[in-house]
Amino acid sequence: MNTNSNAYTIGYASIMVIIVAFLLAFISSSLKEKQTENVKLDTKKQILSALNIKDGDVAANWENVNDFILNADGTLSAYDGEFKTNYSDTTELHVFESNVNGEKKYVFPVRGAGLWGPIWGYVALNADKNTVYGTYFGHEGETPGLGAEITKPIFTEQFVDKTVSKDGNIVLSVVKNGKVSDPSCEVDGISGGTITSKGVDEMLKTCLKRYSSFLSSATDATSGATKVEAAAQDSAAAKIAVVDSTINAVKDTIVAKVDSIVKEVKDELKK
Amino acid sequence: MSNLKETFLTPLGLNNPVAVQVLGICSALAVTAQLEPAIVMGLSVTIILALANVVISLLRNTIPNRIRIIVQLVVVATLVTIVSEVLKAFAYDVSVALSVYVGLIITNCILMGRLEAFAMANGPVDSLVDGIGNGLGYAIILVIVAFIRELFGAGTLFGFQIIPDCLYEAGYMNCGLMLMPPMALIILGCIIWAMRAKNPELQEK
Fold first, then answer.
1. Chain B residue nearest residue A39, CA to CA
2. Where are the alpha helices (DSSP H) in B66-123?
3. Which of A96, A162, A242, A267 has the most CB atoms around its CB within 10 Å?
4. Is residue A15 very low, low, confident or very high in pLDDT (cuts 50, 70, 90)?
């Protein structure tokens, strides 16, 4: 058979393409379910990792985490749909809430762009909604040893206890390696991974900004606490005033008494 | 038998795909900043190359000459996709670690080079051995480059610190240039230089 004829070449190419297409379609559809399951499990694992829960069964640990959606007024309502693995939809903002060692933690999904592809992460905040409890970062194709270092503990653990927002602005930021000027809210970037580090910085700022109604509801709570404190101070001041006036009254009577005694003594002496 | 042994051993030394044929340089620069990804990449290429070599070798008498490169590319791309899909379903962690390299494996010149030069002209058993040999030859160079880059660039191997703290206190500093791709090219150049200096038959007249 002449393998160089046009008919053979076209026929060979067509059959090859059809076989490959069917093969790939078959493999993809037969493995689809298992893959989605894996992706879901992996997403849960990432969220748990932001909460510093890295050991144990993912499904069992997940029992402790609740999925919420943020309303426009800054309140949360429970999310009862299917667990999502992609949080790029900005019209539906998810917040995960969990109890770790008896303390409430909130996890916020963030997404952004690195140098070669998308990067994403989960940022866990403490109950005050303003300090970081833990972070997780993931990427699709950053360079190993450079940009890909954002996933390493040496980078993610830097965020712990940093302040997230000040006066309504997100101040949590990644700066050039060695250029940290405010250690309360800045972390070192990756040297050699400048664009990825900038991507993380931008991702944190834009994505956490969307949650500002929820984050600032934390500020309300703190100002509420301040009010209570102020009221306590007021009542204390009032009590002090009462005590003061009593002391003054007592002093006056004592002075008057002493005066009268002195007068009497003087009168006696004159006699 | 001695022929098979030769097929296996020459790509590891005198006919190394990276150091002598200077193929697959792009991926050698991209994944050698650390030892671990270099090994993963080396093994992935070895497996895919061995499989693709066997498939092409079995098909070699039916492939129309004018579209042979396209056929080779389709075979490689299909194999890589199938392997990554299967890993995603049954070994998710491995597939996440490999996701970066999938594109780099498909475009690796060594694959096309071996398919075109060897599998198109030899039987499946020879092709399998040739694929494994060339894949390992590529892996060896990657590991050497990654070893030097990680040790001097970050002071670690496999992520564990090797350079002791007291050296850092004495003023030793990691060489940041080592982590940059140009340094991989320079190290690769030095390896090629050393190989050619030792084996005069490699030098062009």
1. B92
2. 68-90, 92-106, 109-114
3. A96
4. very high
Partners of A76 in the β-ladder: A70
CA distance linking residue B152 with residue B167, whole number of Å: 13
How many C-beta atoms lie closer than 10 Å to residue B107's C-beta?
Answer: 14
Residue that has been written with the tokens 């940290």 in this structure: A180
Beta carbons within 10 angstroms of residue A128's beta carbon: 15
A131 backbone dihedrals φ, ψ, rounded to 5°: -120, 145
Structure token pair of residue A255: 């002075």
Spatial distance between the Cα atoms of B102 and B116, rounded to a whole number of angstroms: 21
Tally of CB atoms within 10 A around B30? 20
DSSP state of B118: I
> How far is the alpha carbon of A143 from chain B, nearest alpha carbon, in Å?
7
Neighbours of B106 (CB within 10 A): 17
Say if residues A112 and A119 touch (Cβ distance below 8 Å): yes
Whole-angstrom Cα distance, residue A244 to residue A116?
72
pTM for this prediction:
0.68
**A176-214: pLDDT as tens digits:** 888 888 888 899 998 888 899 999 999 999 998 888 888
Confirm if B100 and A41 have CB atoms less than 8 A apart.
no
B142 vs B32: CA distance, rounded Å: 6
Cα A101 to Cα A27, A55, A60: the distances in Å are 44, 15, 16
- The strand pair at A173-175 and A186-188 is best described as parallel
pLDDT tens-digit profile of A125-163? Answer: 998 888 999 999 998 878 777 888 898 888 998 999 998
**What is the Cα gyration radius of chain B?**
19
The residues near B83 (Cβ < 8 Å, ≥ 6 apart) are: B47, B48
A135 Cβ contact partners less than 8 Å away, ≥ 6 residues apart = A50, A121, A122, A123, A124, A156, A159, A160
Q: Which residues of A touch B (CB under 8 A)?
A: 3-4, 8-9, 12-13, 16-17, 20, 23-24, 27-28, 31, 34-35, 38-39, 41-42, 140-146, 148, 191-192
Residue in A20, A42, A140 closest to B92 by CB: A42
User: In angstroms, rounded to a whole number, what is the distance separating the alpha carbons of residues B55 and B75?
Assistant: 8
